[in-house]
Amino acid sequence: MKLLPSLLLCFLLEVLSISCQDTGLERIVGGYAPVPHSIKYIVSIQTMGRQHICGGFLINTYWVVTAAHCNIGLTNMLIVAGDYALTIYEGTEQQILPQLLVPHPAYNSVTNNNDLMLIKLTGPIQQNQYVSIALLPRQGATITQGRICRVSGWGYTSPVGGQIPSTLRTVKLPIVSTEKCNSSESFNGRITENMLCAGFTLGGKDACQGDSGSPLVCDGRVYGVVSWGIGCAEPQFPGVYTALSHFRRWIDDTILSYYSRCNNKD
Ligand SMILES: *[C@@H]1O[C@H](CO)[C@@H](O)[C@H](O)[C@H]1NC(C)=O
Q1: In this structure, which residue's CA is closest to atom 2 in ligand 1?
Q2: Residues 24-35: tens digit of each pLDDT
Q3: Are 160 and 12 in contact (CB under 8 A)?
Q4: 32 assigned to some structural domain
Q5: Residues of the signal sequence (predicted)?
Q6: Does a structural domain hold residue 208?
Q7: Model's pTM, two decimal places?
Q8: Which of 1, 12, 68, 84 has the most CB atoms at less than 10 Å from its CB?
């Protein structure tokens, strides 16, 4: 969803005859490889053909959070937890099929507002030394400008693609105020209250194509979900994230109503 170099990227990818979709093509730029299996809540969302599309993260053993624009359809989706190098079998992976996709009902693919989706898994993920659950902020919790957060993912390591070696990457970024991010020098009015910006004024570090849906973690809680941007790591254009503290109630209500519906059936 990162627009400008996205065109260039699409062109390059077309030359390489790889399909370039809006969905999820966003690897971490300017980051580093974390200690293997130290980020245990992250999952890779893949096609049934095992192509990584997006990131996501576990919020309990049956539910994953990702971006709504990562919705490739229930029948084409595979969730992989406990992974580190995507192309290498490490014996720590758990692959699970989704049972239900719940994109936010107010998701707008034009404005990217409410870019959030819940995925119910067909079976529980086993929590172990490679896989665990992420914590969410409470509804309405704020995160102040300048706070250092960390985003991780399997997306591109440079705006024009980067390499294939597919280990997880991570980068630390400061939160940018909505005022600055929404200003005419930056996103010029396209930032809603459901979005959060993070990055450096000079660019150089960012989420990129393939990182969509991945978690931005501040103070041990997931405050943001990689959503969109203009290019990757461009000066003046921080990454834009879905602000999870605006959706805590929706997440809790959606999961609760799923289980009450099930109970009423019997
Ligand atoms: C961003 O700017 C637009 C246009 O000025 C405004 O409508 C919108 O409310 C602003 N967003 C926030 C979160 O203040």
Answers
A1: 189
A2: 333 488 888 899
A3: yes
A4: no
A5: 1-20
A6: yes
A7: 0.87
A8: 68
Distance 265 CA to ligand 1 centre (A): 44
Tokens of 48: 């049934």
Catalytic pick from 44, 152, 212, 214? 212
Distance 230 CA to ligand 1 centre (A): 18
Instruction: Specify if 43 maps to a domain.
Output: no
Ligand 1 residue neighbourhood (C-beta within 6 Å): 178, 182, 189, 191-193
pLDDT tens per residue across span 94-148: 999 999 999 999 999 999 999 999 999 999 999 999 999 999 999 999 999 999 9
Given 69, 83, 211, 214, the catalytic residue: 69
Range of the domain at 231: 148-246
- Which residue's CA lies nearest to atom 5 of ligand 1? 189
- Expressed in angstroms and rounded, the spacing between residue 23 Cα and the centre of ligand 1 is 25
What's the structural domain count of the chain?
1
- Would residue 246 show up in a list of annotated catalytic residues for this protein? no
Known catalytic residue at 266:
no
21 within a domain of the structure (yes/no): no
